Fold:
Amino acid sequence: MAKIHVLEERLNNKKEALLEKELVFEEVSNLAEKLRTQALDGRKTTLEVAEKINEYKARTTDLSRKMLATVSELSMFQSKALKLQQEKEEKDLVLEGALQNLDQGMPPTEDSEIEYQRIQRNQMRRRTEGEERRQRKALEA
Structure:
């Protein structure tokens, strides 16, 4: 349960980071558009504008890659959280069934019954072997 909480917290952190990056992306896009407009108006030289546009495009591309990586990571955490939740639910069902079996005087699980029988067989075998050894010692003495 703690893992799920930690994963959910990390998921929320990643979502916040993603939203921040989206806002930065919008700002960068707006700035790039303004620069294009200024270039058309002739306020700056073509070379300066091209350099700035290239810089913003590079930053935008980098941010896009980072956002995709974050989204992928977020997806992995969500998948892991779902898997852990399913495992928990399955184990809860097994526990519930075991408790019901115990209430009815039955073994908790089939595996526990098999293990119990194995232990009893081993104990019986040891007792028998111990008795046989004692009898042999008694006969030898």
User: Anything to note?
Assistant: The chain has two domains: 2-106, 109-141. Residues 109-141 form one domain. The chain is about 90% helix and 0% strand. The first helix runs from residue 2 to 41.
